[in-house]
Write a structure and sequence with these properties.
By secondary structure, the chain is of the alpha+beta class. The protein has a domain of 77 residues. Helix content is 24%, strand content 11%. The protein is built from six helices and five strands, in the order H-E-E-H-H-H-E-H-H-E-E. The strands form two sheets. The chain has a three-stranded mixed β-sheet with strand order 3-5-4. Strands 1-2 form a two-stranded antiparallel sheet. The longest helix is centred in the middle third of the chain and has 23 residues. The chain starts with 34 loop residues before the first helix and ends in a 7-residue tail after the last strand.
């Protein structure tokens, strides 16, 4: 039987076809923020006000030989400070009018999601600011143009040991591409993942290299 040409179609029936809004929303993907958790937070120092924190540095004293019946040699101490200046103010602001808020689908829990998103966005600015300081290190090994290798790791550790940097203040921060395409290709590091020695010491730790935790972050740039 031949069909006619005056059939009802999706186009002509569009006014009768409902459009459904999902009961849930998709939120954007977030990178795990890990750098800020590793460093010291001095914000409490400014809780009472102020825009500069002066951190005194105590210098090492000098030992002198003591001979009988002679006056001791006094150490003249000259101390200085590290000055932390607060000159960056970052915020996220949004406003949902009552009329609009009352009409938004309740299952979206929009206000809660927006508040969490705003907090994440501000925190990510701190994360990026800390990571940006990495390029200012006075001693550097290797280059982003050359693959990650064990000799550079050992040279970096040697620099820290020579500067008497405490072991608990050390960590390697690597981009996931470096971790999974280069670091995990070095047996002495990748095989330790399956041992008790790789128990996480920091949030976000992937493994350890010579006892130093490795933290992966997608926010680390190529420098």
């Amino acid at each position: 039987m031949a069909l006619g040409t005056n059939n009802s179609t999706i186009t002509t029936m569009d006014a009768l076809i409902p459009e459904v809004w999902a009961s849930r929303v998709n939120n954007f993907f977030r990178a795990n923020l890990k750098a800020a958790a590793f460093f010291e937070d001095w914000s409490s120092e400014l809780a009472g006000g102020g825009d500069v924190v002066h951190v005194p540095n105590i210098t090492e004293m000098t030992a002198a030989a003591k001979a009988a019946n002679t006056q001791v040699v006094l150490t003249a101490l000259t101390e200085d400070t590290i000055d932390l200046t607060v000159n960056v103010h970052t915020h996220v602001a949004f406003l949902i009018e009552d009329a609009a808020a009352s009409k938004v689908k309740a299952s979206y829990m929009l206000q809660e999601k927006y508040a969490k998103n705003a907090g994440y966005t501000v925190a990510s600015k701190l994360e990026d600011a800390l990571i940006a300081l990495f390029s200012g290190f006075s001693q550097v090994v290797g280059t982003s143009a050359i693959g990650f290798n064990d000799s550079n790791v050992r040279q970096a550790i040697a620099y820290l040991d020579a500067a008497n940097v405490p072991a608990e203040d050390r960590a390697f921060f690597l981009h996931p591409t470096t971790v999974w395409t280069q670091l995990q290709g070095i047996d002495r590091f990748s095989l330790v993942v399956n041992t008790a020695g790789a128990d996480p010491l920091l949030k976000g730790q992937l493994t350890t290299m010579y006892g130093i935790p490795v933290v992966g972050s997608s926010r680390i740039p190529v420098v």
